[in-house]
Specification:
The protein is mostly beta strands. The chain has a 4-stranded mixed beta sheet, with no helix packed on it. A 3-stranded antiparallel beta sheet has the order 3-5-9, with no helix packed on it. Strands 1-2 form a two-stranded antiparallel ribbon.
């Protein structure tokens, strides 16, 4: 019964999210005039393979579940890339299958980005971050963030 309720809540959240315009994603959520920060979830890590990448090199980041509980991804690629200087709008968010993906305890998922924006243009050197959306077993949504930079050399 609990699994059914969780699935129903998650599907409702995904349906609402999918009904919104998909070409831009807002990272800041205003709640009671406060900006909601990126959250942490015990035992779950999201990080890049390294802190600095050369132009043209794939930027790879890893979601690692070291908790005792399953976590859930709302799609096959639930991440977006943001410029640190303009964090309000995603510069890239992959088109992905809208299917709930389970990440079991001690499981890792890797995602890579080719340094191109939503229009397919290579992004300039600078400081960026990837943000991933995950859900816990109760259906609570979390945003995890991984910082990195892109340099000419």
């Amino acid at each position: 019964m609990g699994r059914f309720i969780f699935s129903l809540i998650l599907i409702t959240n995904l349906t609402f999210a999918m009904s919104q315009k998909q070409d831009k994603e807002v990272i800041k959520v205003v709640k009671n005039n406060n900006v909601q920060e990126v959250q942490k979830i015990e035992g779950v890590n999201f990080f890049t393979e390294k802190s600095s990448y050369k132009k043209g090199e794939n930027v790879c980041f890893i979601l690692e579940n070291k908790s005792n509980d399953e976590i859930f991804l709302p799609s096959s690629a639930p991440y977006a890339i943001f410029d640190k200087n303009k964090p309000e709008v995603a510069i890239f968010s992959p088109i992905a299958t809208q299917v709930i993906t389970t990440v079991k305890p001690n499981e890792r998922k890797q995602f890579c980005w080719n340094q191109k924006d939503i229009e397919g243009t290579e992004v300039p050197s600078g400081d960026y971050f990837a943000r991933i959306t995950i859900f816990d077993k109760s259906g609570k949504k979390y945003f995890l963030k991984a910082d990195f930079s892109i340099k000419l050399k």
